[in-house]
Amino acid sequence: MILTTLLIYHFYPPFGGKSLEESQRKIRESPQFVDGKFHNSIPTSLKYSLKESVEGIVLTLKGTPNSRPKNHLPIVPFDAKAFEENPEDQVIWFGHSTLLLKVNGVKLLLDPVFGNYASPVAYVGPKRYSDKLPAEIEDLPELDAVIISHDHYDHLDYGSIRKLRGKVKQFIVPLGVSGHLIKWGVAGDRIQELDWWEEFSYKGLTVASTPARHFSGRRGLDEGSTLWSSWVIVGETSRIYYSGDSGYGPHFQEIGNKYGPFDLTLIETGQYDQRWEAIHMTPEQSVQANLDVQGKRMMPVHWAAFTLALHSWNDPIERAAQAAAQQGVALATPKIGETVLIHAMEYPDSSWWEDID
Questions:
Q1: What is the DSSP string of 122-161?
Q2: CA atoms of 92 and 160, how far apart (whole Å)
Q3: Residues in CB range of 77: below 8 A, 6 or more apart
Q4: What is the pLDDT of residues 146-195, one digit of tens each?
Q5: Is residue 201 classed as helix, strand or coil in its secondary structure?
Q6: Whether the predicted model's global pTM rises above the 0.70 cut
Q7: DSSP 289
C-alpha cells in the first residue's frame, strides 16, 4: 500500500510534474521564493484553529441551502464565426474563471477548465453545475496563447491541457508551472514562465505577471512549489486585469498605480469563507479591489460553475451587485457564453441568476 501510494503520488499524471533545471534556477532567484517555497508579499496564514476546523467540518456535513442551482444555468452557444470575424476586443466567460479573449486580434484563453469536475479524479469532487458549455475545446479556433494563474485544479486542468496542447502556440504561466505542462506533453519552447512584475511581449500585446495573495499545490505536500499570479494584458486600445485567486491586500493598489486604469477587470468574486479570507476575497472586497486597480468596469468571475465553499451558489453575484451599487462601480454580468465587447457603449448587465430556481 505504501509503495502504491508513493507511485501514485509521483507518477499519476493529473498531479503534474516537477520543473526542469532552468525553471528551478529562476525559482531559486525569485524574491518570492524563501526557505524552499513561494510566499505572499504580506503574512498570509493557511492554518486554522481546531475550533475553525471543527466548524468547517460540521457545516460541510450539514450542507448549505441552495449550494447548487436546481436547474441548469442559461448558456449562450459559442459562435466561432462571429468571434473570428468581429475585430472588436472582446471577452467570453465560460463559467468559473475560464475566459476566452480577443485583444488586438490575438486569441487568448485564461485558466481553461473544460472538465466536469474540479478534481484530479473524474466523478470525484466538485461537479460542474451545467452539463453543457458554450463550446468544447474541439470547437474553439486555433489559439495564440493560454494564460494560467496558478496550479489548483479549478484553474489548471490536466484533461483540458492535453486537448489544448495541439492548438495553442504559447503558454504563459507563473514560475514553476511549466513542470506540469511539460509532463502533460507541452513543448518547453512554447512555455513562457514569469515572476511577479515581469513582462512578456507577444504579438503586439504586453502580458505582465502581477502579485496575488494565494497559494499553490496539487498533491498536498507540494504547497508553495509553484508561484501564483494575477495578470495584466495591455493591447493597443484595451487594458485588462485578471485577478486569478487572491485575498485582499495592498498589491491591488500597487498594480493599479503601475498599470491602471483598466478598461475591464475580471475579478474573483466567489468561493469565499471567513476562515480563509486571507486567500479568497469576499464580494465586497472584490469590488474594492476593482477600485484599487482603477477598473472602469468589473466582471465578477470564479462563480457559477463549482461549489467550492459554504455559501449559496448565487450569493457571490448578489453581494457583488449590491456592493457595486453602493460604491458606484459598473458591473458586467454576462450569461455564460455571452460576448462582452470591451469598448461597447452598453455591457450585459441583466440579473439573469434571479430566474434560476
A1: TTSSPBPS-S--S--GGGSPPEEEEE-S--STTTS-HHHH
A2: 17
A3: 134, 135, 337
A4: 999 999 999 999 999 999 999 999 999 999 999 999 999 999 999 999 99
A5: strand
A6: yes
A7: H
Phi, psi of 283 (to 5 degrees): -60, -35
Residue by residue, DSSP assigns 155-186 as TS-HHHHHHHTTTEEEEEEETTTHHHHHHTT-
Give the helix ranges, DSSP H, for the chain: 2-11, 21-29, 50-62, 80-85, 158-164, 178-183, 251-259, 283-292, 315-327
- Residues 262-320: pLDDT tens digits? 999 999 999 999 889 999 999 999 999 999 999 999 999 999 999 999 999 999 999 99
Query: Would you give the DSSP letter of residue 262?
Result: B
Residue type, 152: H
Cell of 208: 505582465
